[in-house]
Amino acid sequence: MSKKAAGLPFLFWPGGRIKVGVNPASGYSSRVSIKCTDNQTRLAELNARKCYVFRHLRYTTAMTSDHPVLYSFRRCPYAIRARLAIACSGLPVELREVVLKDKPAAMLQASPKATVPVLVLSASAEKKARVIDESRDIMRWALRQSDPDNWLCRDNPDLLWQVEGLIQENDFVFKQHLDRYKYFERHPNHPQNYYREQCEVTLIKLERLLQQHNFLTGDHCSLADIAIFPFIRQFAHVDRDWFYAAPYPCLQRWLDHHLQSQLFIGVMKKYPQWKEGAEAQLFPETTHGNRG
Prior knowledge:
By secondary structure, this protein is an alpha+beta fold. Helices cover 41% and strands 16% of the residues.
């Protein structure tokens, strides 16, 4: 019989209880605190593979249950779109909020490229834990298991080419110009307005698409809308007065629609920085309506 306290598992044991600590490097418990009824505490460093207790617990560094672990940073547009897809799918994950200046060792070991989001899937007896550290892949992983709003456009496979093309341009062209526009001081070769004009090449394309229908690929929200709008949000925040005065009324309406959705509001909830040993935070906390 077990219960969870302070984020770590406990086992009731004759004469006391055993508290299991998880080694973030190996994923196996390497420390056991045995608290006896006479309040004496003994610490023993044990090999998890040889210990009866651990063979039957099967806890890993990723979780105190079998939920995947998502390392995320609230404001990162890549992490936002990953959380949006996971929330839409309804698949529960353990959310670990990261501070970029203090990245946890467990995340760095899972994904040495050290960027969020990172999704760690639980290991089985036959396979090692699987790591997905690209936001687009995390989105597709979640939606392929559960896609209640049909963001993957399963009924119209011809749209997939358009969806992929829009996401590719956003990720490899627009994002590069956006970074220079937002952090123009780091790129003194051109003034800020120059980088904004480079971004506008993409904005014009999106505006023309949205003049034709409510969303980027039609009157139905798709993966393209969800993958791109966090970056348009980031662009708008650089100079909100300029953006909302610019000749992009359809793009502005589209952005506001997503910003006001319950799905977006839900995934932007603030969480404390995750620390090793903290109690697991399941995400999403609720099923969101008005997904958009």
